[in-house]
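For the sake of transparency, this paper describes our internal protein records without simplification. Such a record has a labelled line for the sequence and another for the backbone structure tokens. Nothing more is needed to write down the fold, since each code stands for a local backbone conformation. For reference, a complete record is included directly beneath this paragraph.
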Amino acid sequence: QAAIDEFRTHGFGATSMDRIAATAGASKRTVYNHFPSKEALFAEILAQLWESSAAQLDVAYQSDKPLRAQLLDLMWQKMGMLCDASFIDLARVAIAETIHSPERAQEMVARLGDREEGVTLWLRAAAADGRLKLPDPVFAAHQLQGLLKNFAFWPQITMGQPTLAPAMQKRVVESAVDMFLACYA
């Protein structure tokens, strides 16, 4: 948590293992016993960020429920994550660092590349059940989530805009789901 706070406040470049140890109230040796380098600690934070975002979207497809209702639930979960201030702060730090170090970004993507997150798994199950016509569930998952992120992630990350008001969240979620279903249902 101390590392997350430091990276969030000072960015990757200005954060040191000394500073992390001081914030944690631990010795530098203790921090190094758990993580061999600042890069390894940052990679672990990014992995946890990915894990928490994927875990939040762990909704099982139900063949007996309406598609729209299930997709709305899934996208509301996604919207909740995208509007979480801690998630936004960490994502901002992660994106800034990956711009400065494309190798680190490629390494992280390679490590996480085998995993499919909740939206993709849900779409794959709905397609297997014959309720969605998806030639490429991974592509479709990016499309669907991109409809939300265009309003509820990128403006906050790149321009520091506030999170969306509840009425706008509702408009974005419902229109994204309806547009998606008009194309793939």
Q: What stands out?
A: The chain has a mean pLDDT of 87. The longest helix spans residues 38-56. The CA atoms of residues 47 and 93 lie 13 Å apart.
